[in-house]
Design brief:
Layout: H1 2-48, H2 59-128
Helix pairs in contact: 1-2
């Protein structure tokens, strides 16, 4: 019984580790999606602040050019952060898959330990049983 209990605890720990890995994966995906949305918003703003010949009002074209340049830097920074977020999602997916494999292995070991202990209990019961005499 001790081995099955130990394997049950291991299986429970592996379940918790799997849930944690899945939560980390979901968080990484959420962050990546937020960065993608931010990049799209920056790109839309950048299109709005694109200086044109029609805006040749002197000061306003300089201000638009300045905003355009700042948005370009923000977009480049966001692109780098997106690459990092993609790497984090890949790592989280690998960790979740590894946690799933470990959990399945722990569940299988728990099931085997229960079967082995049931077989051992049956053998013990047969050994300790009062012998039956068969008369002819």
């Amino acid at each position: 019984m001790a081995m099955a209990n130990r394997m049950a605890r291991v299986a429970h720990v592996r379940t918790l580790q799997k849930r944690l890995a899945l939560a980390c994966q979901a968080q990484a995906i959420s962050e990546r999606d937020q960065l993608r949305q931010m990049a799209e918003r920056i790109e839309r703003l950048r299109q709005v602040y694109t200086p044109t010949q029609a805006d040749a009002g002197g000061f306003s074209i300089k201000a638009m050019a300045h905003q355009y340049e700042r948005l370009g830097k923000a977009l480049a920074s966001t692109a780098e952060r997106q690459l990092h977020a993609d790497d984090m999602v890949d790592a989280a997916q690998a960790a979740a898959l590894d946690a799933h494999r470990r959990k399945r292995a722990a569940d299988e070991l728990h099931a085997r330990a229960e079967v082995a202990e049931a077989v051992e209990a049956e053998r013990r019961r047969e050994r300790n049983a009062v012998p039956r005499w068969v008369e002819f």
